[in-house]
Amino acid sequence: MSSYHLDHLQHLETEAIHVMREVAAEFERPALLFSGGKDSICLLRLAEKAFRPSDLPMPLLNVDTGHHFPELNEFRDRRAAELGARLIVRRVEDAVAAGIAIPNPGEVSRNRLQIPTLLSAIEEFRFDACIGGARRDEEKARAKERFFSFRDSFGQWDPKNQRPELWNLFNARVNTGEHMRVFPLSNWTEMDVWEYIRRENLAVPTIYFSHRRSCVRRGGQWLPVTDLLPPKPNEEVRDLVVRVRTIGDIISTGLVVSPANTVDDIIAEIAAARVTERGSRADDKSSEAAMEDRKKQGYF
Predict the structure, then answer these.
(1) Are 43 and 185 in contact (CB under 8 A)?
(2) How sure is the predictor about 166, in pLDDT bands with cuts at 50, 70 and 90?
(3) Residue 261 has what DSSP assignment?
(4) Can you state the percent helix, strand and coil of the chain, rounding each to 5?
(5) Which of 1, 179, 202, 281 is the one with CA 20 to 30 A from 242?
(6) Phi and psi based region of residue 99 (left: phi greater than 0; alpha: psi -120 to 50; beta: remaining)
């Protein structure tokens, strides 16, 4: 008698596809959050496997802070066009102009301003579920998430009031105005993501690989020198060969000095790393509870 055993990646893939199909079956107006980053690239391939040859049963949604790496936006637009998927982009600048998002005096980061921009888009299109690429291994607050993470009518999350998911059975019921955030990659790790990218031969933005860039040393890490982040007097500036591990605002995304030119190089580098990928995000260093506070307010 023959038997069939799933390897580690196949198990994660089938679990994620099951979650995606549950979303399509249970919700009327789902959306897939797509930034062009490595996690959402995996989500897009999983959606293809879950629903092809039919069209994707959901649009792609992206909140553009105006502080994105240009390479990321170019990849986002090109990939959506290749798949023939509907891409909805809502910009923080437009939300500020409309009075939806209100910056604090002197506020430079737009992380907080993504929250009302996203919640406004959810209300505009009446999305009742948003699929995201968050993983439990990324950060403490994300480790508290379930696959199906309930949001109330204000778009807020209560980590102490979550629904049980025994045997991967999901309670998808929401009332009008409420919605669900869904995380098919919950059980994946950074290593799993890159091994899946290698196995599926997926394209990723060039900034994940080593490239030469002018960097400024700030807060114990290298940040890219841009018009948004000019160096201050007496700050150390160097021209380095670097890459990104995780991508956020261009003003808060730390760069790692790295010669990694291929996916195999990245996998070897991750295996030897002693710092988590989000350890290079300045926006997560502001306080222990920074991410959890943002998520309670409606962040991704």
Answers:
(1) yes
(2) confident
(3) -
(4) 40, 15, 45
(5) 202
(6) left
Q: Decide which of 5 and 183 is more confident.
A: 183
Residue 159: is its pLDDT beyond 90? no
Give 281's strand partners: 253
Q: Which residue has the tokens 């399509």?
A: 24
Predicted TM-score (pTM) of this structure: 0.89
Q: How far apart are CA 224 and CA 253, in angstroms?
A: 8
Q: Report pLDDT digits (tens) over 130-143.
A: 999 989 888 777 77
Pairing of strands 60-64, 129-131: unpaired
How many separate domains does the chain show? 2
The CATH number for 140's domain is: 3.40.50.620
- Looking at the fold, whether 94 and 49 belong to one and the same domain comes out as yes
In the three-class reduction of DSSP (H, G, I as helix; E, B as strand; rest coil), residue 229 is classed as: coil
Locate 192 and state its tokens: 């799993």
Tell me if 172 is assigned to some domain. yes
